Amino acid sequence: MTATDPTSGRPDVGRRDAARPTPADARHWITADFAMQVTAIEEVSGGTDVSAVVWRFVDDTGDAWAAKWTTRTTTTGTRLVGSMADAGLDRAPGTVPTTDGRRRSRRGGGRLAVSRWSEGEDAATVGLDLDGWHAYGELLADVHAHAFPLPPRRQGARRGIRRRRQRYRAAIRALDARPPGDVRDDVLGLWHDARPRIALLQQGTTLASAAPGERVPCHGDPHLGNVLVEPDGGLRLVDWDEAVVAPRELDLHLVEFSVLFAPAAPDELAAFRAGYGPVDLDEHRLVRYACVRALEDLTSTMTTALDGSDEDRTEALRVVTGILAPTGSASLVEDRLRTALADAATRS
Length: 348
Known about the structure:
The structure is a single chain. The protein is of the alpha+beta class. Helix content is 43%, strand content 14%. It has 11 helices and 11 strands. It has helices at residues 23-34, 76-86, 123-126, 130-145, 168-176, 185-204, 249-256, 266-276, 283-307, 310-324, 329-347; strands spanning 38-43, 52-59, 64-70, 95-96, 105-107, 110-116, 121-122, 215-218, 227-229, 235-237, 244-247. Strands 1, 2, 3, 4, 5 and 6 form a 6-stranded antiparallel beta sheet that branches. The radius of gyration is 20 Å and the shape is globular. The termini are far apart.
């Protein structure tokens, strides 16, 4: 079973100083803020977002629900999901309003939202056939076509591709400055071995787009781990914390250059594109976004591998080696990056 809003990305944004709430905290907040009686509640494990906690709970009628608490400041995701629900788009889990009509309540230094629990499984686990890939394209096309105003800056809206609190350029400088003799020299060795490839990815972040892209509502992290295959075969997008109004390439680069170490086959990509519909994409923008994503993930996980607990280090090293592996996001973009850089050089 899968919550309607699991945390399956690797973001590093939001406050970390708030105390992690317990199931008892969640039970009290759900009752007080949403007027729902909780008969059973358990934390959902498996996410790696340190700024969020997800619970599955059952109410007094026997219905199952998901509650998510997060310290992230952006409200774009909940506003977008609510706007889509108001427009009758059944592409995301609608949230339950609070007793005073809000989409989330403020509790414990964070925000709490409640939505229907889904019995679906994520597409990264169960896979998609070609019809599923076609439906996946239709799913993102519906999101991008939705009329949604640009969120005001004062509401903490995410802007552009950036997801991390620490900028990747600063993280690269900090990792380069690590002195030899560190207790984890094996990890530093991995970083230095990968440094030429990281420098290539940095070049990709300078690629200029041919023209400004049309700004559309984007999920922000629509990889297959955030796509639920429902029992009836329908698809739903979950985990909207990265939502942003931006060029559509911000979402589509995650289809072209998978971050789950399992790239799409040519026939799967063709089915996705047929479902999405004809559109002119900017190759340099796609590649640039893929380079930024790879650098953010590499630097954040490498830092965790050096400074985190032994358990965190093991998982971080798995992610780092996965990104750099032949099916990782860094490797997937490199050939098209070299082509794009050569193209940019001929234009200048």
